[in-house]
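Progress report, Aim 2. The chain analyzed during this reporting quarter is listed below.
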Amino acid sequence: MNAADRQTAEDAYKHMKLAPNTPIKGTKVDVCFLGSCTNGRISDLREVAKYLKGRKVSASVKAIVVPGSQLTAIQAVHEGLDKIYIEAGFEWRGAGCSMCLAMNPDKLVGDQLCASSSNRNFKGRQGSQTGRTILMSPLMVAAAAITGQITDAREVFKV
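Predicted structure tokens for the chain:
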């Protein structure tokens, strides 16, 4: 690794408040964001809803779900998926970008850590220059929302 790459890696670790060679599993999350145009398909919403039934979002987590399109939102509501998410403790939003790029009030505050199924995680993407984003699958986001930390969905949901 050259000096520039090493510095980039060091800067990333510092920004994310992580240490090299340290497992990320168990890291506390503040916000869990599922959806938008990436990973907000009806198939994603259905799959996660199967595992959310009867579970609750951790009291320490703000959880948001955003269908990937208006048609997806209509289909999800028709199937009752919105109710499953809401009963679990997710905030159901209309289709759109939302926290993916910090639209409306859906933004990270300070150095909050977000488990996100969106597709980018550069500094400031979710509204705070010091906010931190870990990209993961929709089911991993749901597992983080339930446990309040980065966790293995296979362990939480017995997948």
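The chain has a mean pLDDT of 88. The CA atoms of residues 52 and 71 lie 22 Å apart. These observations will guide the mutagenesis work planned for the next reporting period.
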